[in-house]
């Protein structure tokens, strides 16, 4: 039996770039979990994308052995978590497998927006929080002021906050000792049943589904028959093990452990994240409390460039969804782009990462349609419809009103940029609910704004205005009725469904002009003039014209009668007229990509 008093399960949480992964590296070195020759920066960020962007996308578990000053050897199960707002779901899942959380705060930058939300997440899960001030070696570090912020904003006692430099390796041992002293060990089970919480999973081409889990009670070993409590399906365990950080096989996993299970599970959809595993012969009566159901907020169509890749795209998405429960998809087709999938994401960075993973891990060539949020349409007959695709918006005459999703955003900004920040929020149809002062030179703004406006370029503008110093975090609030219209883009009189979008009436004209202008640059010229138009409810609100090619038909006429030239020009004019009536405009793939990019202008 495991001695539970020698186990500590904890997570590292922080704002982006405050040094979570570097602190995890130092812990791995100090506990000698990883040999020195294999050590590299951000060791737990194993995905190429994570290493390139310098961000953590997935939560990474690792088991370490630490010989403490009291002479005992402790087992530490650490889960390194992401810091970006789009991946806060990863954080909430990881926290449920822990008893404690190390809250890393940059001693130079202080408390940021994500620090606030991650602290609330840890408090909701009743975790013990250990504040750690990182980067104390920086000349701009201000330990006293940041400690004060931790007390004022997060209401955490900062008198015992540890001061470390993860980069230089200062104070790491103190952190490990504090983990032993201040984090509680796992609680022993009240009954004799085996229960394991699935907090992540991935698909291995050779071994099937690999389940990441935290064992709350009982034990699991190879050969055991297990039951997935949500579906009632039974499986046989082929292998169990722990992460060191690679998957390392072990004889069995016991109460309090964090590890992996490989069973004879072939299909990605057979396990849900948040599920409970129990033994078939002595099943638990009730599952562990799972996670709150996550709802995607941003929707976009993803289509293969080659239509023959449609099947492959479907299977690849299935495998990705196993590893990322917050990603949803269903089949759809578009006149312009053929067969594809309507996908739901938690935010734009999430969408970008999923698309990049599809390209790299599954070698797919894909394009996406304009990102939208999900709207609620209240019909005149009282019926309420959820619409996440402008194509499915009912006829305007049948609609009572449209409601859009709103968010409550927390923005932390230097006070010098307050005026510009307020202007940006008003431009994006937001309102500031309250303003709090953090210290002498920073403010925390709480505002209420439409998700649709934050989607595309809000974060970039926020960073530009504040010279990179502002930070933002948001949570979903509710739906609010708004004056929204569907805007169609017509090319040569035909509506192109992939370019349709739902916009606020006050912004429709500007948005329409912007899209027509960007299409003007990318659609090749034809032998006839082509009209590019933006329309709302059949009324044209913006127009650009692609001028026709004109061949010089009179080049061979040397002097002579003018009527001869005129005859040739008239014949050309007739030809153009006929072409205009029957001509079709082929829209190149670049046009779709260019229009999606104008949204970032």
Quantity of strands, as a count: 31
Please state the overall shape, judged from the principal axes of the Cα atoms. globular
Number of H/I helices: 14
**Approximately what portion of the residues adopt beta-strand conformation?**
25-35%
Helix content: 25-40%
Q: Would you state the CATH class of the largest domain?
A: Alpha Beta
* Mean pLDDT metric: 77
Query: From the helix content, strand content and strand pairing, which structural class follows?
Result: alpha+beta
Residue ranges: pLDDT <50 for 5 or more in a row? 39-47, 50-54
Q: N-to-C terminal Cα separation, in Å?
A: 61 Å
Task: Describe the protein's architecture and organization.
The strands form 6 sheets. A 6-stranded mixed β-sheet has the order 2-3-1-4-5-6, sandwiched between helices. Helix 12 (505-522) crosses helix 14 (589-598). It folds into 5 domains: 4-182, P-loop containing nucleotide triphosphate hydrolases (Rossmann fold), CATH 3.40.50; 195-279, Beta Barrel (Elongation Factor Tu (Ef-tu), domain 3); 298-370, Elongation Factor G (Translational Gtpase), domain 3 (Alpha-Beta Plaits), CATH 3.30.70.870; 376-482, Alpha-Beta Plaits, CATH 3.30.70; 486-598, Alpha-Beta Plaits (2-Layer Sandwich). The chain contains 14 helices and 31 strands. Helix content is 27%, strand content 34%. The chain has 601 residues and is of the alpha+beta class. The chain is globular, with a radius of gyration of 29 Å. The protein starts with 6 loop residues before the first strand and ends with a helix.
């Amino acid at each position: 039996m495991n001695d539970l008093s020698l186990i500590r399960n904890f997570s590292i949480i922080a704002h982006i770039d405050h040094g979570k992964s570097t602190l995890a590296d130092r812990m791995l070195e100090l506990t000698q979990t990883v040999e020195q020759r294999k050590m590299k920066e951000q060791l737990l960020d194993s995905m190429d994308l994570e290493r390139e962007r310098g961000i953590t996308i997935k939560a990474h578990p690792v088991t370490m052995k630490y010989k403490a000053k009291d002479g005992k050897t402790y087992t530490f199960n650490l889960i390194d978590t992401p810091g970006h707002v789009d991946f806060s779901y990863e954080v909430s899942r990881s926290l449920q497998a822990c008893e404690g959380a190390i809250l890393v705060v940059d001693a130079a930058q202080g408390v940021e927006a994500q620090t606030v939300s991650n602290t609330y997440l840890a408090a909701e899960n009743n975790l013990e929080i250990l504040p750690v001030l990182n980067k104390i070696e920086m000349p701009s570090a201000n330990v006293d002021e940041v400690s004060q912020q931790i007390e004022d904003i997060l209401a955490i006692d900062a008198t015992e906050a540890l001061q470390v430099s993860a980069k230089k390796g200062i104070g790491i041992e103190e952190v490990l000792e504090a983990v032993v002293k201040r984090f509680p060990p796992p609680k022993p089970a009240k009954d004799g049943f085996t229960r394991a919480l699935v907090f992540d999973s991935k698909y291995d081409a050779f071994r099937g589904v690999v389940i990441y889990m935290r064992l709350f009670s009982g034990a699991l070993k190879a050969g055991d028959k297990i039951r997935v409590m949500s579906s009632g399906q039974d499986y046989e365990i082929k292998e169990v093990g722990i992460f060191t950080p690679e998957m390392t096989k072990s004889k069995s996993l016991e109460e309090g452990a964090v590890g992996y299970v490989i069973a004879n599970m072939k299909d990605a959809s057979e396990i849900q994240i948040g599920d409970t595993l129990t033994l078939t012969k002595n099943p638990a009566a009730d599952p562990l409390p799972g996670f709150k159901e996550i709802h995607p907020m941003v929707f976009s169509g993803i289509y293969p460039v080659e239509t023959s890749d449609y099947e492959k795209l479907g299977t690849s998405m299935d495998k990705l969804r196993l590893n990322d429960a917050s990603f949803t998809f269903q089949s759809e087709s578009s006149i312009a782009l053929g067969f594809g999938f309507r996908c739901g994401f938690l935010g734009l960075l999430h969408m970008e990462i999923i698309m990049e993973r599809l390209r790299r891990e599954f070698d797919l060539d894909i394009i996406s349609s304009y990102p939208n949020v999900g709207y609620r349409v209240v019909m005149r007959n009282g019926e309420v419809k959820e619409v996440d695709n402008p194509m499915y918006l009912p006829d305007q005459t049948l609609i009572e009103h449209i409601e859009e999703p709103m968010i409550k955003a927390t923005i932390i900004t230097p006070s010098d940029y307050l005026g510009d920040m307020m202007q940006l929020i008003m431009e994006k149809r937001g309102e500031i609910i309250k303003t709090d002062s953090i210290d002498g030179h920073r403010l925390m703004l709480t505002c209420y704004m439409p998700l649709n406006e934050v989607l595309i370029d809000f974060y970039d503008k926020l960073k530009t205005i504040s010279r990179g110093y502002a930070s933002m975090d948001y949570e979903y609030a509710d739906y609010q009725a708004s004056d929204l219209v569907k805007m169609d883009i017509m090319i040569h009189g035909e509506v192109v469904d992939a370019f349709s979008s739902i916009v606020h009436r006050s912004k429709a004209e500007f948005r329409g002009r912007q899209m027509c202008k960007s299409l003007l640059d990318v659609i090749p010229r034809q032998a006839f003039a082509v009209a590019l138009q933006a329309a709302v409810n059949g009324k044209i609100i913006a127009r650009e014209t692609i001028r026709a090619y004109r061949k010089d038909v009179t080049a061979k006429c040397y002097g002579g009668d003018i009527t001869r030239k005129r005859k040739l020009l008239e014949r050309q004019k007739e030809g153009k007229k006929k072409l205009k009536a029957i001509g079709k405009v082929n829209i190149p793939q670049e046009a779709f990509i260019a229009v999606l990019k104008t949204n970032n202008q």
